[in-house]
Amino acid sequence: MDFGEIFNEAIGEMVSPTTAAYALAALGLAVHFGYSGLLNFGQAGFMAVGSYAFAMSTILLGAPWWIGLLIAIVAASAFALLLGIPTLRLRADYLAIVTIAAAEIIRYVVTTNSLTKVTGSANGLAGFRQDFLRLNPFPPGNYLGYSSPDFFYRFFGWGLVIIFGLGVWLLMRSPWGRVLKGIREDELAVRSLGKNVYAYKMQSLVIGGGFGALAGLVFTLPRDVVQPANYGTELTFFLWTCLLLGGMSTVLGPVIGAMLFWVVLSLTQNILFGLIGVGALPWLNPSQAGQLRYILVGVALMLLMIFRPQGVFGNKKELAFS
Amino acid sequence: MSEPQLTADAVDYMTDTRPIAEGPAGPGCAKRDPIVVADDVSRRFGGITAVDVEHLEIPRHKITALIGPNGAGKTTLFNLLTGFDTPNSGTWQFEGTNLEGMSSYKVARLGMVRTFQLTKVMGKLTVLENMRLGASAQPGEKLRNALFQGIWGKREKDITAQADVLLAKFKLDTKRGDYAASLSGGQRKLLEMARALMVNPKLVMLDEPMAGVNPALTQSLLDHIKNLKAEGMTVLFVEHDMQMVRHIADWVVVMAEGKVVAEGPPAEVMRDQAVIDAYLGAHHDVDLGAAGGVQELEEVLAADEESVVGTEDAGILSEESVLSEDSEILAVRPPDDEDDDGDGTRERRTGRRAADSPPDVVPGTSHDSRED
Ligand SMILES: Nc1ncnc2c1ncn2[C@@H]1O[C@H](COP(=O)(O)OP(=O)(O)OP(=O)(O)O)[C@@H](O)[C@H]1O
Ligand SMILES: [Mg+2]
After folding, report:
1. For residue A81, which of A129, A120, A49, A107 has the smallest C-alpha distance?
2. Cβ separation A178–B132 shorter than 8 A
3. Which of A177, A193, A320 sits opposite B108 (nearest CB)?
4. Per-residue pLDDT averaged across B135-143, rounded?
5. For a Cys-Cys bond, which of A196, B126, B191, B314 suits B318, CB 3.0-4.6 Å?
6. A317 — contact with chain B (CB < 8 Å)?
């Protein structure tokens, strides 16, 4: 068993485009839940809407990358409005129910066979990144061990995480963010002070959903394929895991949470495989090991909730009053 | 908050002796200068009718108390008037603006701001942030301005200054940077009231503002409320403490079972037999806080044939147990409650001073609560 190799791979996972996508989507959840108290259990749906909107506009309409990006954001905003308009006046649980159902509806619709021409059904759509790759400013070569396009995907993904992380940080320090936090604490009290709570919740839902759509792009562009199986309910719950791991009402929380999540997955997988390889775990086969690592992540999350319930970056003082 | 020309008017509002009502006082009577007018407002919850107000006018620039037994519909009426609940029928206006169907935040923006009986503070925001949240006209609360501190920084400074003045008035300045969740129940009441004033309201509606606030602070709060009137605000408050109502209210509205049953200046309303029967009780006018108050109640009760005082059933209501050396009022124990430990009884009968007992234990029940 080569620990250097295992360690290297874990570091690789930490900065992968997928991790950046998780970080961005979890940042969206932080805007929703950590700052505004909105329970969005359909972030995978927002990611799917973003990815499919980009892929479909590129493949079916031949749109350039920026039109695709625009369409992705518009589609995610429309999705947020569609979910928010009937539910945001109601109690928090209604949004949770509607988002989880809507995300599943999206997944089933794009899997439908009768839509194969448009969505590619279960196989999904492939080949939509050529125009986007023309943005790549890095000439062919070796960048920190990555090829030029691979480095570009990471640059793009983490660039977005940094820009939007800063954006969220600034927003939440502003009076606008204060109203959101007030709504999280007590919606009625905020209304009694003359704030249009419904509009603020809608803005929050659209912003966080937009982050989800961008995360969808960061996730899907390096693969150059978008498939419904990638956007199941478990994706949403992995994102929630990242958020809880890192801490909810912080900007660094979801980002570090996503990194931790993937490092732990990678380490446990490779260590288990290594142990199986040297015959130390005769009762475990590799496919079981793949499942076991999710169990271990669950255990890690439980331990964290017991010993550091505010998450790695959360504020202990805030938690004392929840 | 107070514009300069108000100092001249202030004398007016405080010493204004023009009649409040237009005709004789009575349930639903018309006011000379009403700020709120409600007609046929009713709200039913399933079978019960929580509010059924035929006509009600709240006088402008006055302090009006809304009293009535538990469940009379006072809080529900507050909710209806401020848009937090929708009535089954009725119309109502604030300064001539029809509020029917208007959402609560718009009502607040018009200048009609309420507090809640079950105090609502934003626990994980600091006291100062709670206050700032109350301020209006902060351009930084718009998403498009939020990223540009240049646009909202100046207003934020003004807001903070206004908040600091109010926090000092309400004795919360030392808590400025603490999370609101760390405040005590009474401090939360104060914060909620101060926060409502940040909106610069024309009408403040306070739902039991003094519940849980200590007597010394109640005094200074009464002054603050009177000052609100001096600054040109109108106050409507719900309160069960009759001393407070007597001290500051210009006008009293009595509700029972959803209806307005009496209205008038405090002194008159409290003599109204219907009000006494429905709400105040026969001996409400004895001030237990005043010197000799307990003795007075004692005498009044002794003369009352429905009272056990002065009979052999009096139990610890009898004079020697009621009057400890510093006239402390002891909790009433039912006379048939067996006291199997003579020690506790003797201590109470000899009039233990408050300082001898743990502060959070009611004298007279301390023994039982520790044993159980
Ligand atoms: N949401 C509700 N659902 C059902 N019944 C309600 C609701 N709110 C109030 N009620 C009923 O309406 C009546 C009036 O209640 P309300 O809270 O207005 O009383 P109140 O006068 O404020 O009493 P208190 O002095 O105890 O605060 C009560 O009988 C109560 O049970
Ligand atoms: Mg009430």
Report:
1. A49
2. yes
3. A193
4. 93
5. B314
6. yes
